[in-house]
Structure formats: structure tokens, C-alpha cells
């Protein structure tokens, strides 16, 4: 893992795909981070206030509340500065993510190295 | 994916021809009389036209408001054009309405022959009414009506072709985006899982293998569904109907559905007269009912699913009620189209109801749905009954 192992982070992963959520949790946990997962966008603010993540990994398309909506809601709170890594399977995801002002972009599908690099870029 | 539009016909700039005046000076009075009749008898003309159109079309296809669409406005503009001294300006206005009318016909699924037929029927009704009013007393007036309806038909057909090509491209792009998005999700899980396997601790590997298998199965199912729809699209489905009892048709399906419902903690009841005999292609009919019942269970999180059967003189209607969160009018209007999911919250290919509809239509059946708000949804499938 490229991230400095002596500095571990609290990471919140939000996606309504349970399997992907589980593998992301496993990958980040094995890298030594403290990971919290959430299966939808509706409760992100509540969990953020309790969990105080250093990074939020957020899916764009979710059935309840979408990633951009979550991002907008967070931007109006004291957690506005918490970096958000946006994941998306949308074709023009990179451009869209840039437009809405997320801190990082991860296009699905991605491998464990891509996830590590993206996390490292925001926290390293 | 099959693309129906022909790129060679795509939106090349078209040169607008200058409108030719519809009548010569000195004939204004005749036209004004005709215009006044159309204005005064507008509702009658529309009713007669609608009556004939409905007799020729599949009556279930659209409600009268949709069918009339821009026609009331069209007739008003037509009357304006006839009454005005400046015929060219009037013509622009009603030609525009004719074009707009054609565009909405694409959405209602009309073909070109039906569109042309609409204008032919309108011409006939106008002739009738003009004769009744005694204003069709010379050939010039008859010619005028033919000319007016003829040019509107040409404008409408051109508009129809442009809109249909555009619609085909838009739907095509939506399909590709949908499939790509749906493929990327399980592919994302597969890739992230596979890249972790080598370094994962032994205790985690079994679970990773399981997740990898599962994502592969989802990918396979999605590809299968896409191919199934494409096959139905590309090949004319020739059903092989036979007499079959509802017990044979629905028995195994309802047992499987009951198990699936129980696994989700839902109630499930199926009240079926097992001896009723229908005349259907067994595989196609089972596939259709299966898709609807699967959806009912998938989208219901609390409550249950109820299946009942209603016998009618020539057909049997299978009703499927669920207590899902409901569907909006907009969702109901697209739910039978490929790659559209009413509620985006659940995994699925967005093809189940499309396959069901095509399977039924191929053998003279039909499918429909309605939503009672948050009380749930009701879908029904009609199956032709075996001859007595």
C-alpha cells in the first residue's frame, strides 16, 4: 500500500451496491484504515457527524439520495472541507465530477491500485 | 443494438420553399365562407374525424385527447388562413401546427401510413361538412380543400421522418448509456475483488471468490437479458400456441414465486382456477407472467403479492397486485420500453417488462399496468382463451 502506514485514516464509503461496498471496505481495511460503510446517501450527514471521516468515498448514482446531492448538503456544513472522492460508472464521469467540485474522481470499474492511488492523492 | 434511423437522412439543412399563395385574387369570398364553416362546425368535424380514426386504429392505443392532439388548433388555423386576405401568412401558421401534430404522432407510435390516413379522413369529413352547408358549390372550393390538406400532409410527413430519426438516435444513445452503466457496476466489483485476491489474507479469500463469482453472474445475466431483447427485436417471434390449463401454465411458476416471496418476508396468494384452458405458446406466456411476478416481488419490500385470474368471454386475465411504493404516471408510461426502470433503486436489466410485452403481443395477448399511489401496483396480462 502506497499510503504511509503510520498515518491511518478514517474513511466513509457510500454506495448502494452492497458487493462493491464490501470489497471497498475490505481493501481499505487491509490497508490499515478505519472504514465505515453506508448503503445509501440519505444518512451521510448523520454518519459524518458521528464518525468524523478524513475522507468520504461517494458513489454518484444511488437510489435514495445521489452523490451530488450528498456533496451539496455536506458543503453547507462544518464538514465542508472533508475531501470527497466521487466514484461513478457514468460515461462522462470525470468531467461531471470536476464540474460539481468533488475533490477526486474514480471511474468504475477500478482495481485496488486505482483506489489506493486516489485515496493517496487526497490524503497522502 | 439496432438503429432504425438512416444516417443519410439525418438533419441536413433543408431549404424552405417559398409558400405559394393558395388562391387567386377575386376568389377571397369563397374561401372566407369555407373558413367560416370550418370555424363554426369545428367540434362536429373533430368528433366525426375522431370516430372514424378510432374505428381504424387500435382503440386501446391512445385516449381521445391524445388523438385529437393539435387538430382543434389546426382547424382554427386553417379557418384563419381561409378567412384572411393574406393567405401566405395564414398558411405558415397552420402548416406549423401540422408539423407539431406529426411530431407527437411519433411518440404515440403511429406509422407514416396512419399519419397520412389521419389527414385523408380529415379531408373526407371536411368535404362532407362543406356539402352539408352548401358551400361546396364549385370545383375550386373542392380543389382548395384537397390542396390545403395535401400540403399539410406533406409537411407532417417530413416532420414525422425527422422526429422519428431523432427519437431513434436519442433512444439508442439512452440504451447504450444504460447498458454501459449497468455493466460497469458488477464489473467494478469484479475488478476490485480480483485485484485484491493475490494479497488478501487467507481468511478473506473465500469471501472474495464468492463476491467475484457473484459479480460475474450478474454480468452474465445482464448480457443474457440484452441478447434476449435483441433477439425478439431482430427476429419475428412465431408463437406455437396450444391448449394448456392454467394449472400447467402457472403452477410451477407460483410455487417458485411463493418461495421467493417468503424469503423476503412477504405474503403471497395465488387464486387460480386450475381447469381454465388458454390457447398460448407455453414458453412465451410463462416468460411474460414470470417477468411481471418477479418484478412484483422484487419491488415490494413490505406487504405482499396477490395473483388472481378473471375469466372473460374470449380471454383470461391474470392480475398481479403488489404493495410496492407505487409508480408515477411518467414511470408507467415508459415502463414497457426497453432499458427503463420505473424505480431506479433495484438492480435489474430494465428489460423484464419489455420481454413480457413482446412475448404476449406475439400471440394476441396484451399487458398493462396501473398504480394506486403508495398502496402498490396492479399489472394484468391477457391470454387468449381456447375455443370452446
Q: Which helices and strands occur, and which strands form pairs?
A:
The complex is a heterodimer of chains A (124) and B (388).
Chain A: E1 10-14, H1 18-30, E2 34-38, H2 44-51, E3 55-59, H3 67-75, E4 84-88, H4 93-100, E5 104-107, H5 112-123
Parallel strand pairs in A: 1-2, 1-3, 3-4, 4-5
Chain B: H1 28-40, H2 42-56, H3 64-68, H4 71-83, H5 87-107, H6 112-132, H7 139-197, H8 202-234, E1 242-245, H9 246-263, E2 267-271, E3 277-280, H10 282-299, E4 304-311, E5 315-322, H11 329-334, H12 352-361, E6 366-371, E7 377-384
Parallel strand pairs in B: 2-4
Antiparallel strand pairs in B: 1-3, 4-5, 5-7, 6-7
Helix pairs in contact in B: 1-4, 2-6, 4-5, 5-7, 6-7, 7-8, 8-12, 9-10, 10-12
What does this structure look like?
The complex is a heterodimer of chains A (124) and B (388). Chain A has helices spanning 18-30, 44-51, 67-75, 93-100, 112-123, and strands spanning 10-14, 34-38, 55-59, 84-88, 104-107. With 124 residues, chain A is an alpha/beta fold. In chain A, β3 (55-59), α3 and β4 form a beta-alpha-beta unit. Helices cover 60% and strands 11% of the residues of chain B. Chain B contains twelve helices and seven strands. In chain B, the strands form two sheets. A five-stranded mixed sheet of chain B has the order 2-4-5-7-6, with helices on one face. In chain B, a hairpin with a 5-residue loop joins β6 (366-371) and β7. In chain B, α6 runs antiparallel to α7 (139-197), α7 runs antiparallel to α8 and α10 packs antiparallel against α12. The interface between A and B is medium-sized, with 24 and 29 residues.
Amino acid at each position: 500500500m502506497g499510503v504511509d502506514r503510520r498515518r491511518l485514516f478514517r474513511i466513509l464509503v457510500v454506495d448502494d451496491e452492497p458487493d462493491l461496498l464490501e470489497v471497498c471496505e475490505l481493501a481499505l481495511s487491509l490497508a490499515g484504515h478505519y472504514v465505515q460503510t453506508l448503503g445509501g446517501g440519505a444518512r451521510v450527514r448523520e454518519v459524518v457527524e458521528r464518525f468524523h471521516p478524513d475522507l468520504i468515498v461517494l458513489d454518484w448514482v444511488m437510489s435514495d439520495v445521489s452523490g451530488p446531492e450528498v456533496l451539496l448538503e455536506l458543503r453547507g456544513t462544518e464538514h465542508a472541507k472533508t475531501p470527497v472522492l466521487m466514484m461513478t460508472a457514468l460515461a462522462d464521469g470525470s468531467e461531471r465530477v470536476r464540474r460539481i467540485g468533488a475533490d477526486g474522481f474514480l471511474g468504475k470499474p477500478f482495481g485496488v491500485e486505482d483506489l489506493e492511488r486516489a485515496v493517496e492523492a487526497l490524503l497522502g | 443494438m439496432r438503429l432504425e434511423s438512416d444516417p443519410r437522412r439525418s438533419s441536413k439543412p433543408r431549404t424552405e420553399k417559398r409558400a405559394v399563395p393558395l388562391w387567386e385574387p377575386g376568389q377571397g369570398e369563397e374561401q372566407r365562407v369555407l373558413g367560416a364553416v370550418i370555424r363554426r362546425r369545428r367540434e362536429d368535424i373533430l368528433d366525426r374525424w375522431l370516430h372514424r380514426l378510432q374505428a381504424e386504429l387500435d382503440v386501446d392505443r391512445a385516449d381521445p385527447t391524445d388523438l385529437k392532439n393539435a387538430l382543434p388548433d389546426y382547424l382554427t388555423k386553417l379557418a384563419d388562413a381561409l378567412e384572411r386576405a393574406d393567405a401566405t401568412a395564414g398558411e405558415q401558421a397552420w402548416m406549423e401546427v401540422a408539423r407539431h401534430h406529426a411530431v407527437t404522432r411519433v411518440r404515440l407510435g403511429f406509422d407514416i401510413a396512419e399519419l397520412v390516413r389521419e389527414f385523408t379522413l380529415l379531408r373526407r369529413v371536411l368535404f362532407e361538412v362543406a356539402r352539408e352547408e352548401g358551400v361546396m358549390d364549385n370545383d375550386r372550393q373542392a380543389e382548395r380543400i384537397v390542396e390545403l390538406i395535401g400540403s399539410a400532409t406533406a409537411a407532417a410527413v417530413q416532420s414525422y421522418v425527422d422526429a422519428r430519426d431523432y427519437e431513434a438516435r436519442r433512444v439508442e444513445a439512452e440504451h447504450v448509456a444504460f447498458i454501459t452503466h449497468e455493466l460497469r457496476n458488477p464489473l467494478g466489483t469484479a475488478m476490485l475483488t480480483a485485484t485484491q485476491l493475490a494479497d488478501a489474507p487467507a481468511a478473506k479469500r473465500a469471501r472474495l471468490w464468492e463476491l467475484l463469482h457473484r459479480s460475474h453472474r450478474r454480468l452474465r445475466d445482464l448480457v443474457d437479458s440484452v441478447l434476449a431483447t435483441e433477439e425478439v427485436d431482430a427476429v419475428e417471434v412465431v408463437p406455437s400456441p396450444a391448449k394448456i390449463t392454467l394449472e400447467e401454465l402457472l403452477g410451477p411458476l407460483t410455487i417458485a414465486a411463493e418461495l421467493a416471496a417468503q424469503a423476503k418476508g412477504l405474503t403471497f396468494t395465488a387464486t387460480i382456477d386450475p381447469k381454465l384452458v388458454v390457447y398460448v405458446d407455453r414458453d412465451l406466456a410463462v416468460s411474460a407472467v414470470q417477468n411481471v411476478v418477479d418484478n412484483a416481488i422484487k419491488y415490494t419490500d413490505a406487504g405482499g403479492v396477490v395473483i388472481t385470474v378473471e375469466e372473460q368471454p374470449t380471454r383470461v386475465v391474470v392480475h398481479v397486485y403488489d404493495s410496492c411504493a407505487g409508480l408515477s404516471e411518467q414511470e408507467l408510461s415508459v415502463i414497457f420500453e426497453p432499458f427503463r426502470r420505473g424505480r431506479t433503486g433495484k438492480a435489474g436489466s430494465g428489460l423484464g417488462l419489455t420481454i413480457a410485452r413482446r412475448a404476449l403481443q406475439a400471440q394476441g395477448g396484451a399487458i398493462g399496468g396501473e398504480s394506486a399511489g403508495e398502496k402498490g401496483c396492479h399489472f394484468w396480462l391477457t391470454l387468449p382463451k381456447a375455443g370452446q
